[in-house]
Amino acid sequence: MKSSTSPPPRRLPAVAAAAVAAVLATGLPALPAAASPGEAGPGAAPVAAEAGNTATVFYYTGTRDWPEYNLHWAPDGGQWTAVPGTAMEAACTDWVKKTVDLGSASGLRATFNDGSGTWDNNGGRNYDLGTGNITVRDGAVAHSDPCAGAEPEPGGGDGGGNGEENTATVYYSTAALGWSTANIHYRPDGGSWTEPPGAGMEAACAGWWKHTADLGGATSMKAAFNNGNGIWDNNNGADYTIGAGVATVENRTVTEDAADPCAGEEPDTQAPAAPEGVTASADGTSVVVSWEPSTDDRGVTGYRVTRTGGTGGTVVTDVGSTVFSDTDLEERTAYAYTVRAVDAAGNVSAASSEARATTGERAPAPAQGRPLGTDPRKDPIYFVLTARFNDGDASNNRGGNQHEKSGNAANDDPMFRGDFRGLIDRLDYIKGLGFSAVWITPVVLNRSDYDYHGYHGWDFYRVDPRLESAGASYQDLINAAHAKGMKIYQDVVYNHSSRWGAKGLFTPTVHGVRDSQWSWYYDEPNEGFEYDGLTVDPKSGKAHYNGDLWSTAEPAGNTCLNWGEPTGARSPEGYTIYNCQWPSPTSGMFPRALYHDCWIGNWEGEDSRSCWIHEDLADFDTESAAVQNHLIGAYNKYIDMGVDGFRVDTAVHIPRTTWNRRFLPAIQERVTQRFGAEAARNFFVFGEVAAFVNDKWNRGSVNHSAQFYTWKERKEYGADDAGAALEMYEWEQAQGPAGQPTSDNAFLRGNSYHTPDHSRFSGMNVIDMRMHMNFGDARNAFHNGRDSDDSYNDATYNVVYVDSHDYGPNKSGERYTGGTDAWAENMSLMWTFRGIPTLYYGSEIEFRKGAKIDCGPTCPLDTTGRAYYGDHLAGSVRATDFSEVVSATGAVAETLDKPLARHVQRLNRIRRAVPALQTGQYSTEGVSGEMAFKRRYTSGSTDSFALVTVTHGATYTGIPDGTYTDAVTGDVRQVTGGRLAVDAPGKGNLRVYVLNGTGKIGADGPYLK
């Protein structure tokens, strides 16, 4: 970190909602990446020392029980010390240290070990450290002295003046932040700022850090706090004013003359209980380890997994959840795992019993990718149903058990038709339209009567083979998109599995009885055959094999009630339906420990979060540790592949506490672990919190409203997840809409952009359901959206679309049919207003407008809004940049020439050129007009200010004087007196006057002109 004596810049990031310490990656050699025994001999010494250039490295021991601590290091450009390095000395409670000479180097690479083969080498990446005081705590690097005493040094030295000396003792709470260390950066009145990141604070008690600052002759100081890794709390840009004496700072509130928050608190000396139920299962060269949550008198904060086996020795990894995915291991090698629990005081439990797993062979696969890691607001999204978009390989096409009955066979239109090969082949089409993110439907192996869309997951750990081809695996798709600068957002489902259960967690032995009427559906069992959706069962001749669900006699261990008895109901064909033939939550077919056992009765009631939506969607008990472990382990696999974000299906049907406690932290932890904190900050999670009403709050129920899920919890609940979910539901319902937090993160303050405060952000953004519901008319969508924006944590991250694979505006069951002009107007608003514009495949040509979006498995897909799109993409297309198509032939050339395709192409070009339209805050203050607003984004040397009006005229007052240029027409206006009037551009057209703009962007089209 570059030294400075000036105060922190006003645009330092505010506290990140998901500020997490980088944890150690796994599955990499236990020895340093740059050194192993024998590589560094006795003569391998550091470069010659240069007086005064040193680094003092502090290492945290509180979560380790090593017999000794060694620092193995190399100055930048120099050689490593001999293994195991140099012994570190005791510094203060829970810390050891070592001061090393760096010579002329500007930093060092380092690892740590216990002298007996156990290493902390930052997951094989080594630690990159600088100079001065450096701390390494549980994988997080900071720059401070954690052992700095509470007593001030004689004579001041902290920037105070002469005269009577004063001190300020500051207690800072990190309970809501997840920081593993804290620094205070401060300036006594009349004095100078400390060097960033400031002084290291010492742990006071659980969730509190303490530092006493010498104020010299001053009576107060300015202060900001940080975690040493670039995450700051500077009071939203205003810094904190703290007086002499004792003060606390908690949730951005300063309390002067405060009581010691740690006074009277008994030291926590009780270790957590040892984890139980530890299991390990291998898949190729990966192992998934899971266990039951441990108990503790004050709460478990994390776990430490120890791996032995292979040639890498012992590896210890810290994790925050109860599941650990160990990847890139050696082939055909036995590994053993034990787990210890850790509490906030650093107490460590006894080791669990050992779990063992033996790896198999390494599957041939392309190199794993890494997320692009840029601000998601910069990336317009194109949403595809992969199986219906474009067919690149006919050999993986499959029709399913309704192929004939639905009429799909007559149309030669198997439901699984599009694939990754087809999507890779048409990435240039999507890029040529100007989109830089592709949202794809779920990729996991599905199992249902109609599973092409991906929401009936069966094997969450396996990509559906009906989507993959040789040279076109899911990894190939991710890598191909990244090579073009495009992101992949994977649709994920945490709420439910298919009616066949979830492989590896629970799969029912049988669903029902086979008789002559059902011979077309239930197959004769084939011992040794396993369903994968693609492989044809030689006995039945079908890929949609149902033999493992068939029986002529009640199976042993059956739990389903009234098994095999006729229900009295009949199928549409007139066939007898038997008890247990179809899944039901109330039948006893699914275990209560893993699945819920009720039907939803009230969609705005508590049961909507704890009951089944549909018989084909077996509802997980997401508060069960076994379910949580299964899903976290599965989705870690796709994070490791380098996807850029998750679209979360049916998010509203899982309690917010479970998201905030389990799933969202697990996502952040894994991305941080594999790719770093910056990638984690920009890993885009957006949830479907479906609310099909025009209310700001869904019929007054906060728990069922989209914005509710963008916030952290506001109070502590019991340790049991199921109990906590009910506590939270009842408490928040009692608070009601009036009691919910508000935010101005989406809004300008006057004409000024301000650093947003994400300290209370949950980690989940959302689809803007209110705008979606009102896009029958763009004006309604605009005003309804604006009305809700203070209730989101940050509405600039809202995903905005007109229609989707589920519904059109006003909960219409048809694809949008408002007309081309209305579509153009909607697009012009989406591409310039706050939020991330998203387009459902084919909307650029009004594909299947007015068609029923979905009519179930019994009608031809060709007649629906989910029809096959590839016929419109035939030919060739090549794009050299976003919105830049250099060649196109055949049908795809005609598609790109459609009026809305040209319209969205130019909208993307304009949005990409004006930062204010991507990441800016907005305001309607001083703006008259139907759909008119101003937007600004300021960061470093970037200051982008734009005035926007869609369709109608507008007048702007109180704006900065200067030269404004319209990005649509190139018109130049000189503003004096802070006033600009803009004539109505016409339906679907818009004006974007940019202060100090560069001129007209793109060529005139059918609407933008």
Question: In a few lines, what is going on in this structure?
Answer:
This protein has 1009 residues and is α+β, with helices and mostly antiparallel strands.
Give the helices and strands, then pairings:
Elements (H helix, E strand, L loop, with lengths): L53 E7 L9 E6 L10 E2 L1 E4 L2 E7 L6 E6 L4 E3 L6 E3 L2 E6 L2 E3 L23 E8 L9 E6 L10 E2 L1 E4 L2 E9 L3 E7 L5 E2 L6 E4 L1 E6 L2 E4 L22 E5 L2 E5 L9 E9 L5 E6 L3 E4 L7 E10 L11 E4 L22 E4 L1 H4 L13 H4 L13 H6 L1 H7 L3 E4 L3 E3 L10 E7 L10 H10 L3 E7 L2 E2 L14 E2 L36 E2 L14 E5 L5 E3 L39 E2 L5 H16 L4 E5 L6 H20 L1 H5 L2 E4 L33 H15 L29 E2 L2 H5 L4 H11 L10 E2 L19 H11 L5 E5 L35 E6 L2 E6 L1 H6 L2 H15 L1 H5 L1 E3 L3 E2 L3 E8 L2 E9 L3 E4 L4 E5 L5 E4 L3 E4 L7 E6 L14
Parallel strand pairs: 1-9, 7-24, 11-19, 28-29, 28-43, 29-32, 32-39, 34-35, 39-40, 40-41, 42-43
Antiparallel strand pairs: 1-5, 2-3, 2-6, 4-5, 6-7, 6-8, 9-10, 11-15, 12-13, 12-16, 14-15, 16-17, 16-18, 19-20, 21-22, 22-25, 23-24, 23-26, 26-27, 30-31, 33-38, 36-37, 44-45, 46-48, 47-50, 48-49, 49-54, 50-53, 51-52, 51-54
